[in-house]
Amino acid sequence: MKLKLLTAVSVIAMFFATLVASSACFWWVYQPEEPQLLQDR
Amino acid sequence: MERLAKNIAVNIGENLQYSTEKTAVVAYGLIAIFQMFIIFFILSIIGFMGGFWIEGTIIFFFVGLLRKSVGGAHSKTFFGCVIYSVLFISLMAFLSHYFINPNLLYYYIALSGLSFSFSYLVVYKKAPVDSPNKPIRKEKKIKRLRINAFVTLTIYFIAVAVLYYLSKKDLRFSGYAISVTMAVLWQIFMLTESGHKFMQVIDRKMVDF
Question: In chain B, what are the domain boundaries?
Fold first, then answer.
């Protein structure tokens, strides 16, 4: 159950991360350092 | 909040045996989710209390969507971002809601027209504006973002035109049109040198939590 929850959270987080990576920046005025895996997407 | 996101990501990474890079991606995604939801949650409370939730929501989404294509000035801290976002969205939403005068409708239309003309020019000259934490190097990506920016602006322009048309029946729609115009102006301001300096000045006043 715990693993399923963590997997679900991980999938959602990675979806948002990929969404942000393909754009110019985060949603509003803060931009944390982008992980190398997502750079140049 | 960043630390919380990173801790959750590390926990996920350990349990699901992710690499360091994959864990970093999860953390990055969680920070994005936290930022969006915290700002929207606080904004909703203020919006409901002040009676300008709709205008606030319009500005929140319209700035966010345009920003994804054009980039812009950034705050150095997570909480700085939350505070400025809530403050400026609330201010713009308040003005859009409470300072609408039916006798000035054609002035609002003219103002929106001028704002969009200026916005197209700034986007043409400046977009996309990247940051040290998220550099944009690929020509293909730059081109794609620029096209997205112009398409987004055009959709907003059409939305504003429709809202002004509808405002003949209900003045509230002109408030929504002003909200969209303010959202565009704010984001365009964030592309300029002045916008960057403004962000630096107010960043200096903030404490990193």
Answer: 1-50, 51-204
